[in-house]
Design goal:
The structure is a homodimer. By secondary structure, the first copy, chain A, is of the alpha+beta class. Chain A is 34% helix and 21% strand. Chain A binds a DNA duplex through helix 2 and helix 4.
DNA sequence: TTTCTTATTAAGAATTATTCTTATTAAATA
DNA sequence: TATTTAATAAGAATAATTCTTAATAAGAAA
């Protein structure tokens, strides 16, 4: 994760550029799906993305949403936040932050640490393969679920 | 996660004790399912646990495996390692360690850090709820998938 | 021990999330 | 503008998980 804080427009420009670099077509669906994840701070799941994009592109298919979310993930434009439910959630915020994951309701909250905070990983981590990303979760019962 | 390194027998004794404390019955299925996760270091998924326990308890049902894995998780006896696939994997090792998660094949590797290593979380993490566990993942392409 | 209560289980149906198949469409290039 | 082919829509298929119901067995009580 980086520290840049861009506007949606900048993020979309960035996506278009990455598509061109990779020889991928810039399609309306790809842009709209990315825009939906990038403009939400609530880590939507595939179904939520589908419902929302459908309002602007009524013919969009579920398959396109899944396929596009996966390709955006491979491009490193979005991050798959694994919930404990059998249902993936997505995040387009690539700034350093960690997730509070409620083990009761499955909700995911962003925790933005103070400047200077850094996630340290063991030195031997790279012995297992090529590191692409780091994901730190704090799991517990969220305030809402505690009443 | 704690630092204790117990034998399987001790872990099972511990489970029985926890069951009694919580007023839960000590059933053969519960013990065998836990034993399977606790004696494996490969983070088995529900199906794998089912296949293995089935050898000793041929009548065990899939539902019992799922239900029991969830209750063991709630009891904090096992940990749900979320893989990126829509398939949960489980870990009964409660010592401090982190996971290397291959984004290509879904394999999960344990990384045991040197003494003194500690996962630091932001101070405001507890503002979101009651913290039960911390999960640090390193995601990338494992050596096997890089050829 | 035997009986009783009820948590737990087996079986299999149902549901939910995700992926696949095929024909069609449209982005990028010539 | 025509051509090529990556990307898409539709909906069927699959895979993981959960639910429903009747039967079983763990632990408490007699």
């Amino acid at each position: 994760m980086t520290k840049s804080n861009q506007s949606i427009e900048e993020k979309i420009e960035n996506l278009k550029q990455r598509c061109q670099e990779l020889g991928m077509r810039i399609t309306t669906q790809r842009i709209e799906i990315f825009k939906e994840v990038a403009s939400s701070c609530e880590h939507p799941d595939a179904e939520t993305v589908y419902e929302r994009v459908k309002k602007r592109l009524p013919n969009i298919s579920f398959d396109t949403v899944y396929r596009t979310l996966s390709s955006l993930e491979e491009m490193n434009m979005i991050f798959r936040v694994d919930s404990l439910l059998p249902k993936a959630r997505f995040d387009a915020d690539r700034r350093t932050h960690i997730h509070f994951l409620c083990i009761k309701c499955g909700e995911v909250y962003d925790i933005f640490p103070k400047d200077g905070y850094e996630i340290k990983i063991p030195d031997n981590s790279k012995d297992f393969g090529e590191i692409k990303d780091i994901n730190l979760q704090v799991r517990g019962i969220c305030n809402k679920c505690r009443h």
